[in-house]
Write a structure and sequence with these properties.
Blueprint (H helix, E strand, L loop, with lengths): L33 E5 L16 H6 L11 H14 L5 E10 L4 H9 L1 H6 L20 H18 L10 E5 L3 H11 L8 E2 L18 H7 L4 E2 L18 H16 L8 E6 L1 H10 L12 E10 L6
Parallel strand pairs: 2-6, 3-4, 3-6, 4-5
Antiparallel strand pairs: 1-7, 2-7
Pfam family, one: His_Phos_1
Organism: Kwoniella newhampshirensis
GO cellular component, one term: cytoplasm
């Protein structure tokens, strides 16, 4: 996954509040255990025609759910259950809620200095004497308010049957502080289950100091109600100062993570919340064969996914 650290991310989406251009990376990674496709007709963001509304508008429109009836979430659950009951052997359906973290101090700094100066110089430092963005920055006040806007919408949707009970939903997130804070603020007292931290959901690693994670001990202390996956190392052994991760490798771990979720040892829940990052989600959506959809800070996109088994295990 070698890539010179001082080469710009292409495109430089990770630190942009906007999530960057509406384009997908070339899909390089072959399927491991499952192939994936998006089931359209449920959420306006999923196509088939490219649509991208401001997230404030998406919040007003029930996270983009096309069914606007009072029974909308019950209808979604019944429809997905029906598809699963009629599915051929080896086919699994799940609904993913992919939420990008709210604005972090690295996003604030990238706005302050501009994309090119950030990519050329500032991203490799830990701060500028006024702002600290590395390692592992926290949310800004704006980032917290973005996440709380999502919580407000979930509370409204819960009243009409949104699938957020412990029996219906499972929560996952990146190990970085900004995603942990976002998950807490996006769900609040509605967080019924135990969120699980996976390395495979983290942002591009290497080079940029904002993408170096805290130690396992620090994460456990900061988020004591979270569960950390088995094999998680104490120190960040993935981040290297002179080696920036590529799209190809992010696709590799995206495919691996989806194989885990949909596999025999994966979660039984149909509805999955994943709190993560823009560049990683850009590659994950490509692996899922979803149309390009840049996520702004704090934004969440629901995706109904059909997984078809193509191998018995992952080699």
């Amino acid at each position: 996954m070698t890539q010179t650290s001082r080469v710009h991310d292409d495109p430089p989406v990770a630190s942009l509040d906007s999530g960057g251009p509406a384009s997908s990376p070339e899909v390089i990674e072959r399927p491991h255990v499952f192939t994936f496709e998006v089931v359209q007709g449920y959420f306006l963001q999923n196509g088939p025609e490219p649509q991208h509304l401001e997230f404030e508008e998406i919040l007003k429109r029930n996270f983009g759910l096309l069914d606007e009836s009072p029974e909308r979430w019950h209808n979604l659950k019944a429809s997905v259950k029906k598809m699963q009951s009629e599915a051929e052997e080896g086919v699994i359906y799940k609904v993913l809620f992919l939420g990008r973290h709210g604005q972090g101090w690295h996003n604030f700094a990238a706005n302050k200095y501009g994309v090119d100066p950030w990519e050329d110089y500032w991203a490799f430092l830990y701060g500028d004497g006024e702002i600290t963005w590395g390692p592992d920055p926290e949310l800004t006040p704006l980032g917290i308010s973005q996440a709380r806007a999502v919580q407000k919408c979930w509370k409204e949707q819960a009243l009409v049957g949104a699938p957020i009970t412990k029996e219906e939903m499972r929560w996952y997130l990146s190990p970085l502080t900004r995603t942990g804070q976002t998950m807490q603020e996006s769900w609040g007292d509605m967080l019924a289950g135990t969120p699980e931290v996976w390395e495979d959901f983290r942002e591009i690693y290497g080079g940029h100091t904002c993408d170096k994670r805290s130690t396992k001990t620090q994460i456990q202390k900061r988020f004591p109600t979270f569960s950390i996956e088995e094999g998680f190392t104490e120190n960040d052994e993935l981040w290297k100062a002179d080696d920036r991760e590529t799209d190809a490798h992010m696709q590799y771990r995206s495919q691996r993570a989806m194989d885990r979720l949909f596999g025999e040892d994966g979660t039984k829940e149909t509805f999955i919340s994943i709190t993560g990052h823009s560049a990683h989600f850009r590659n994950l959506l490509a692996v899922l064969n979803h149309q390009p959809y840049p996520l702004a800070t704090g934004e969440m996109i629901p995706v109904v996914v059909k997984a078809t088994r193509v191998a018995s295990d992952f080699q």
